[in-house]
Amino acid sequence: MKISLNWLKNYISFSTGLDDFVHKLTMAGIEVEAVHDCHGDKVVEVEVTPNRSDCLNMIGIAREVSAILNKTKKIPSIKKLPLPKTKCDVQIVEKDKCSRYIGTVIEGVSVKKTPDTIRKRIEALGLRSINNVVDITNFSLLENGQPLHAFDYDKLIGGKIVVRFAKKGEKIVTIDGVERELDPSVLVIADEKRPVAIAGIMGGQDTEVTSSTKNILLESACFDQVLIRRTSRKLALSSDSSYRFERGVDFDGVEYGSRRATDLILQTAGGKMTSYSNLIGKKSRKLQTTVNISIDEINSYLGAKLTTAKCKTILDKLDFKVSSTKGGMFKITPPSFRTDIKAGVDVVEEVSRIIGYDNLPMTMPEVKATDITTSNRQICRKRIAQTMVMQGVNEIVTYSMINQAALEKSRQGHLKGIKISNPLTLDQEKMRPAMLPSLLSVVQFNLNKGQKNLKLFEIGKVYTGNKEKDVLAAVMTGDSDKDWRETMARARDFFDLKGCVEQVLSKLGFNSVLFEQDTQEYFEDGAAVIKVKSQSIGFIGEVHEDVLENWGIKQQKVWFAQIDLDVLYSGAAFEKRFQPISGYPAVVRDISLAVKNSVSFQQIKDIVYELGGKLLTNISLTEEYIGEKIPEGQRGLVFSLQYQSVERTLTEDEVNI
What we know:
The chain is 29% helix and 27% strand. By secondary structure, the protein is α+β, with helices and mostly antiparallel strands. The protein has 5 domains: 68 residues, Phenylalanyl-tRNA Synthetase, Chain B, domain 1, CATH 3.30.56; 192 residues, Phenylalanyl-tRNA Synthetase, Chain B, domain 3 (3-Layer(bba) Sandwich); 62 residues, Phenylalanyl-tRNA Synthetase, Chain B, domain 1; 194 residues, Bira Bifunctional Protein, Domain 2 (BirA Bifunctional Protein, domain 2), CATH 3.30.930.10; 69 residues, Ferrodoxin-fold anticodon-binding domain (Alpha-Beta Plaits), CATH 3.30.70. Strands 18-22-23-27-26-25-24 form a 7-stranded mixed sheet, sandwiched between helices. It has a 5-stranded mixed sheet with strand order 4-7-10-11-12. The chain is elongated, with a radius of gyration of 39 Å.
């Protein structure tokens, strides 16, 4: 956006030096990028943020400068012209894409050279002078921000204007001389038979105003900003009009821009208004937000001691309506062109930037001491991560988005993840319903880089239906870590991963963990479901050879476990009771049992502990025997039981079974 200082001074009188002016404008949020000399004028280039489309015109800048310098602005007055009773033939077909359209027919105009006052102003801001009618539409755009377009009315077939989507195969030669092919996603302004302009972007060559034009139709409209942005990118075509429509045009400004341009055309080109239409689409004026905020709140945010009068003056200069200031409470209605003002903090920002952030006092924030509580979820996640790392397992973080192909490769294609409606890539088309594909992709990546011995874990989320849950996933492959005493590496197996899982659960207070044999499509035989208090919380096993082959993992076994953490959060216990070391000797007894193959060690252990009472301190399996004297389908197990008391030496009678 370019600003002519000579032009600006027509709206607001100030004598501030250029350097001071540039500094204050920048500090108020309108960053100055460059200053140029132009025929005795100073042209200032500024960067306007996308949410401040109201500053893309001279009146908008004058409003800001008025507040910054505390000066009175003079907005051009418009003659109250009598509107003709005859209506223009205008039809809005796509009412949700065109919220307002004003068409004004002016007959008997004299198209000629533009007056120097207008010509010099638009040329200073980088536009080329065409003729008085076209230049006035550009002048009005630069002055008040409302894009306009003038059609040669006699060249409109049927004298009709229709706002519609283009038909397949339609073409238009725009005023830049380029023929453009249109499709049904492009909003156009058409006459009775053909498109005559690309709505909000550029007019057509067939109906442009030339020196022979006698009658014109002046268009002032408000088009959907998202649609204009998409069309501009699709056609690789942009203009000063599209730049403003993309950022939002003021609904009320449509009428002001039309009246201002009509007034100037009648003054410089003559003619007479013969017909006029002001049509409203489906989307009318947005309801203006009312913000309530007190002077105490403003001062609390800024650490300042501003007065009610000071704040009201600033807001008045910015055209905010301050309808009440009783008891230091403001009831504020932003102007229609300030759609970015939605809450009290937005008003605070307006006040602070006009005052100048460098003018606000430096005050230390007041911090109140409060108890910081940590949830079970946070404690569990931290303790799990610490426990895994202490066991030499490396933490990883993977994307929570995968594709269907990854699930199919992992034999989990039946799981229904949440599909993403607008994925950035096909590799991230849905939220993952399982962790196995994510970890296998990391294993594959590392193996390809020559890293064959891996111990990895991730605490992440999986998504099913309308729910998400926290899970711990771990994977191991390759050889175990050697210390200085070992001469040969040992291949990792089921029990390495099982031990990690048991250690994690123990740290969360779950000491009785059951691993029951189970089958899963993606596991080899010998997989297990993990249970705590008879509730399934996860699974563990060797990843199936076919799954590994799908991922390009060959000649290497991979072990995987997944635990549902949401189940554990509520039952986790973090307090540890002190257990004194006994000063009395332990007594050991061995027992032999013949049990069915289906009975697990954990089941036997739980029963023995229950029967052994408080004096039984440890149970260990010392021998397994299958052979003579052992019935088929059973096995012989020898257990070593340790009894000990912290109060006395135990007697034979107390420990004999």
